[in-house]
Amino acid sequence: MEAIRVQDNMLLNGKISTVFLKFAVPAIVAMLISGMQTMVYGLFVGNILGPNAMASVNISNPFVQLIMGISFIVSVGTQSYMGLNLGNKNIEKAQNVFKTSIIFILIMGESITLLGLIFNEKLAILLGANDVLVKDVSTYIKMIAIFTIPINLMLLFGFSNRIIEKPELYFRGMILSLFTNIVLNYILTAKLNLGIVGTATATGCSFLAAFMVVVWPMLDKKSVINIFVGKFDKSVIYPMLYNGSSEGINSISTATCAYLFNMAFMNIAGEGGVAAFTSINYIAQFGILLMFGISDGICPIVSYNYGSKQYDRVDKILKLAFKICIVAGIFIFVTLFFFGKDLVELFVKGNNDIISLSASGAKVYAFAFFMNGFNIVNSGYFTAIGNARSSVIVAASRGLLFIIIGIVMLPMIFGVSGVWMSVPFAEVCTFFIGFYLTYKSSKSICINI
Q1: Which of 39, 98, 105, 271 has its CA 20 to 30 A from that of 158?
Q2: Cα–Cα distance between 111 and 61 in angstroms, integer?
Q3: In this predicted model, what pLDDT tens digit does every residue of 315-337 receive, in sequence order?
Q4: Among 281, 292, 279, 286, residue whose Cα is nearest residue 257
Q5: Long-range pairs for 127-133: beta carbons < 8 A, 24 or more residues apart
Q6: DSSP 2
């Protein structure tokens, strides 16, 4: 078979700074574009459909995160597991992992689609929608459910393209996705007045457009990884899912946090509180996705080199990622702290109560960005080297454990400010856990962190 030769792979032999530019930068930009997608429909929904529709989209977020969670578990776990095997020159095993991941994600995608189509209203109520919001929430869930399989496959193929040295395709797909989202939102939401149906359809079609870009290398029989090679191997399902489990934790955490924050703000400040959180969340997620872009971008580099036992290269790429996270974190902090009010007004105009609540919350939330880049990259690093246990610990600590502790305890002391403080609290606590785990891991393979 004519294929990319592992020993000639740029991931193993290229200059670290060059490899980072080729693999990590497209991943970072792609993630930022993903954040822009969120902001796009936030702008359309907030300014055209109003705060209640904006709150409805946010309440629907846990269902969206269920779709994304399954996608990321399989996609990242597959990418990492393939990278480790290709780095170790076990090509047949890598091909089996890919074929198995396709079959598995199709089965899961169909199940989620049926769940959203049949039980959308019950899900809306379960997620906290009141009588005012339940119709829009159930409609959004139903429409997004239709696009589950294209979303699943777009992420799986996009992440797998990085393993065959085509990281730019996911980036190009996300650019087309953003363009599609803007155009369709304008047509369906602004011009045709289709409301929640319009914005959900635009979002779903944007993923479908990206899928059309990333699918082509997987149809090429000359690629070391493609849909025609390999076989279903049930023995790889557990290690694949286990290795990507931290990504599932991240999505579950996002969904859980959205639910907890929605309920907390609904109790304290009603629909306006949820809208305030939603507007800040749009902005903050943009910064968080930047950090995830760094993490995702270095994953194939780390897994390939770790699999081939080139630990010095693992050390260099990890240190470079941490430095970039520090710079990015400072920039995002300054933006949120000093310009949070101006950014919020892009989403919510004319409602001074929501703007005031959002602006004060942004100043508190901003402190999380001093630590979250380190935590996100740490979790991704552990996934890349196959240390799923440590990756899950870091992901669960920042996204679940300390968030829950913070959101239960801090509002009792600080009121509504305590809700905003839960995120920085969780990131600081996780930082110390992550630092210990990274130090312990680095000593076992002689990496000097």
Answers
A1: 39
A2: 18
A3: 899 999 999 999 999 999 998 88
A4: 281
A5: 127/59, 127/60, 127/62, 127/63, 127/259, 127/262, 128/59, 128/259, 128/262, 128/263, 128/266, 129/56, 129/59, 130/266, 132/52, 132/271, 133/52, 133/55, 133/56, 133/59, 133/271
A6: -
